[in-house]
Amino acid sequence: MNKQKVIDILNSEMELATGCTEPAAIAFTAAVAAHHLNGEKVKSIHTLASGNMIKNAMAAGIPGTHYTGMEYAAAIGAIGGNPEKKLQVITGVDSSVYSKAQELVQSGSVTVEVAHTSEKLYVDIQVQGEKHSAKAVISGAHTNVVLIQEDGKTVFENKGKTTSAAGIGPEEIHRTLSVQKIYEFVGKMDPVNDPLDIIRQSISVNTAISEEGLKNDYGLKIGKALREEKEKGIVGDDMVTNAVTVTTAAADARMAGAPFAVVSNSGSGNQGITTTMPVVAAAKWLKSGEDKMIRAVTLSNLVAIYIKSKFGRLSALCGATVAGTGAACGITYLLGGDLKAIEYAIQNMIGNVTGMLCDGAKADCALKISTCTNAAIQSAYMAMKGLRVQKTDGIVENDVEKSIDNFTALGNKGSAAMDSLVLNMMLHKEKNV
């Protein structure tokens, strides 16, 4: 295996992001467009976005503000965003930007429509100034700019395949990786000397937002409430409770717009939290040591990246199921599991949480993450006892790679009708609020 290629994949699919990645991608696109407006003040913004993007941006909090939704994300990005910061595009903006964005939105000058496209991740934003207009389009990945126009004239166009910032596309990822190759990489890597800064950063940064979620009231307060119940003796003080507590606290804070960054996985901050925090919590509980923890977190993230490269960036199915599958593998490794046990853990997760619905990014994502974290630890313990969902059951097959292919086919081929139905429900509800 090409060790450097695997490290490149980690660096391409794990990155710092502030706030929910869908509003961040919208703010980024708006900022790109605004930077091509010849220095003029933004007078209006029109956004066309795929149903999946609208679904995931509609109710997500915007960091540092009390605002939610696409209109505010686009306005803040266009007025004060720095596109060079990618998914941290609005980090550090002046507070005056928020009031200007509010004026623009409340004036009715920021509009959003559903784009008629088969691409699940698609945003097309046109900004209008006093005399000039500009347009930017992303497609396939959250910061993958495919078109920039100034006054209707194309100044940049990318007709190639969707890639990450490092130039690595999903096809290359799933050609390079497999469950066995990931396991072999983790066994051979050097946690001290190999360039694994993004793994260390995922541990420290995602722990920081978890601690913030435990200190203050965010969203549904799932993590904080669970810790309080543990202190009262209502729930046990065990590895499962601790893992769920720290993981959901991070998601609580993130989805409520806490001004903290996370290290994302495959374009999702919640997936970055879910691949990292259950494994970190288990490593601390088991006193595994830093070396083994870094290996386990690397394993978890690589498994999630590998499956997500086949699953697709956005889907009608919840991405926490993929991230939780990575966490199950990392926890199995911490428990002393070999390749066979890790494959069993994957089979158990596919037999359990497949089919969990994604109905947008919002506060109760933390509830789904709680479910997937519980399932991850249960799957790991079953695997260590030699127990796995059998090939006779559902979509699971003997070969773990075939089971993964069945699982991912549901995510990227079988979800169109569900996506449409969910989006219609959400838009209809929104009109009657």
Q: In CATH, what is the homologous superfamily of the largest domain?
A: 2-methylcitrate dehydratase PrpD
Strand count, sense and barrel status of the largest sheet are: 6 strands, mixed
What's the CATH topology name of the largest domain? 2-methylcitrate dehydratase PrpD
Uncertain regions spanning at least 5 consecutive residues:
none
Helix content: 40-55%
Q: What radius of gyration results from the CA coordinates?
A: 21 Å
Residue-averaged pLDDT, rounded?
Answer: 93
Tally of strands: 8
How are helices and strands ordered from N to C?
Answer: HEHEHHHEEEEEHHHHHEHHHHHHH
CATH class of the largest domain: Mainly Alpha
Spatially, the strands of the biggest sheet line up as: 3-2-4-5-6-7
Total helix count?
17
Our estimate of the beta-strand percent is 5-15%
Query: How many angstroms separate the termini?
Result: 54 Å
Reported CATH architecture of the largest domain: Orthogonal Bundle
Cα shape? globular
Structure, described:
This protein has 433 residues and is of the alpha+beta class. It has 17 helices and eight strands. Strands 3-2-4-5-6-7 form a six-stranded mixed beta sheet. Strand 4 (122-128) and strand 5 (133-139) form a beta hairpin.
Features:
8 strands; two-stranded antiparallel sheet; globular; alpha+beta; 2 domains; 6-stranded mixed beta sheet; 60s Ribosomal Protein L30, Chain: A; 2-methylcitrate dehydratase PrpD; about 425 residues; 17 helices
